[in-house]
From TrEMBL:
PANTHER family: MONOACYL PHOSPHATIDYLINOSITOL TETRAMANNOSIDE-BINDING PROTEIN LPQW-RELATED, PERIPLASMIC BINDING COMPONENT OF ABC TRANSPORTER. It comes from the Bacteria. Keywords: Signal. This is ABC transporter substrate-binding protein. One of its GO terms (biological process) is peptide transport. Transmembrane segments: none annotated. One of its GO terms (cellular component) is periplasmic space. Residues 1-19 form the signal peptide. The keyword GTP-binding does not apply. InterPro entries: Peptide/Ni-bd, SBP_5, SBP_5_dom. It comes from Streptomyces aurantiogriseus. SUPFAM superfamilies: Periplasmic binding protein-like II.
Length: 497
């Protein structure tokens, strides 16, 4: 559903966007162009947090700019497809990958098995590991110049999907010569990262020797604009061609033809602390669940631009709803005025509003509610340490593998690395183990839904709504990616008229 434009943005918002974007895009607000066309100007939400190291979440920026690539990519259904590897086969705990011939890194060096082993080994031995390797022991060896074997401690049917993670991008040797991984001029994609200006901007130029064919745009100019109003205003004023993560509050103010919405595998969830405090009591977790009116949050906070959750997995994974069955949960107890503290963060514009709405709903049910709202970087450690009774999180449910089992394990296993609910439940652990070991396909999907049911039965997490990708594309933009998994944005096929 798209809402009609209701009013123009105020001049102050346009001015703010101009101030934030000055220095990356040309001063007159038009895209710079040469004999071979216009450069693509992109306004992105979050600045780099780790110097664009692919071992961090910054990896997704490298992927969205088409500068760093992986051995495998995922299709729309989450199945593995060839990328820098052309084929693969499994033999027990070992997978063999054939490396694509004729690929060069942006520094001119050749992609071969040794280069792949170097990148995968760096990721597998990093501290902390990329989250896609959470609980996975992985070693890579060169069988010959064009073949890499990847071996895991136990049989893992998900190895190809894991290797699609942007955090396992394959970079040139030069990227690993310093204390941190530096992707500058070290990728294999259609665009070469040529300049990074801290947390302000980045510049990419077309790499004409790209193995997949010459990109249509001569380059990409990126500006990091955390303020959502400024990002939306930049699209209206013509200072940006593509704007990611348009806030719901701004989407309705843009011309409808400039806005695209795609259901994404991201769920807005209330995690309840099962280890200590008020919500250690299952009946009070049930009381919190029954108090939540997700439909009113979708209408009031998201202006209808989200989907009410039936489970942890949403419409971006249509098979989930087809397989899901009713879950038996605990009966609600009496909150009796007990005080709970809910944490969340400001980085996603809607979450503080969601927190305020939940505060009212839970108070109406008999709880006393305090809110603790900070920037994500300043609150994540407290959330993971169980410092809150509840925490509101906008969580990607397929993480980097395109498979929900990794998300379920990370968030709900007793030893999961992102277990904000502090859940330790043998039945949940057993269901997660089965889901992780089941081969890909229908059987694995059934096991994943069984794991979802096991988690929901504990009320450790109350799914509220499923978000949508809201992206702004200027009228002259052709071929911008609208990716539910937020891995692609500007591709070799993207250009500006």
């Amino acid at each position: 559903m798209r809402l009609p434009a209701r009013r123009l943005l105020p001049l102050t918002a346009l001015s703010a966007a101009s101030a934030l974007l000055t220095g990356c895009f040309t001063g007159d607000g038009s895209a710079s162009s040469g004999a071979d066309g216009k450069r693509v100007r992109v306004a992105m939400m979050q600045p780099p947090r780790s110097g664009l190291s692919p071992l961090s979440d910054d990896a997704f920026k490298l992927s969205r700019w088409s500068t760093a690539e992986t051995l495998v990519k995922l299709d729309a259904t989450g199945d593995a497809q060839p990328a820098l590897a052309t084929s693969w086969q499994q033999s027990g705990r070992t997978w063999s990958f054939e490396i694509r011939d004729g690929v060069t890194f942006h520094d001119g060096t050749k992609l071969d098995a040794e280069a792949v082993v170097r990148s995968l080994t760096k990721a597998a031995t990093a501290a902390p590991k990329p989250r896609i390797l959470d609980g996975v022991e992985l070693t890579a060896k060169a069988a010959d110049a064009d073949t890499v074997t990847v071996t895991t401690a136990t049989e893992d049917p998900l190895v190809p999907q894991r290797l699609s993670s942007p955090q396992l991008s394959i970079l040139a040797a030069k990227a690993y010569t310093g204390k941190t991984v530096n992707p500058l001029g070290a990728g294999t994609g259609p665009f070469e990262l040529t300049k990074v200006n801290g947390t302000s901007s980045a510049t990419l130029d077309r790499y004409d020797a790209y193995w997949g064919g010459k990109a249509k745009a001569p380059g990409i100019d990126v500006r990091f604009v955390p303020d959502g109003t400024a990002r939306a205003a930049a699209l209206r004023s013509g200072e940006a061609d593509i704007v990611e993560a348009v806030p719901v509050s701004q989407a309705a103010l843009l011309e409808k033809d400039l806005v695209t919405e795609v259901p994404m595998p991201r769920t807005n969830t209330l995690y309840l602390n099962t280890e200590k405090g008020v919500f250690k009591d299952a009946s009070l977790r049930a009381a919190a669940r029954e108090a939540i009116d997700a439909e009113s949050i979708v209408r009031g906070v998201y202006e209808g631009r989200a989907d009410v959750a039936e489970g942890l997995l949403g419409p971006a994974l249509p098979w989930a709803d087809e397989l899901r069955e009713p879950v038996t949960r605990a009966k609600a107890g009496d909150p009796a005025g007990r005080t709970v503290t809910i944490g969340t963060f400001t980085d996603r514009a809607e979450l503080p509003e969601v927190a305020a709405a939940l505060q009212q709903q839970l108070q109406k049910a008999g709880f006393k509610v305090k809110l603790d709202v900070r920037e994500y970087a300043n609150i994540e450690s407290d959330a993971l340490a169980g410092a809150f009774d509840a925490f509101i999180l906008s969580r990607a449910t397929v993480l980097d593998s395109g498979d929900p089992a990794a998300y379920f394990y990370s968030d709900f296993a007793s030893d999961g690395s992102f277990n904000i609910a502090q859940l330790s439940d043998p039945s949940v652990d057993a269901a997660l183990k089965k889901a992780g070991e089941t081969p890909t396909g229908d059987a694995r999907r059934q096991a994943v839904i069984a794991a979802e049911a096991a988690v929901l039965a504990t009320d450790a997490a109350v799914p509220m709504l499923h978000e949508r990708v809201i992206q702004g594309d200027a009228a002259g933009v052709v071929g911008a990616a609208h990716d539910p998994r937020e891995r692609e944005l500007v591709t070799a096929a993207t250009y500006v008229k």
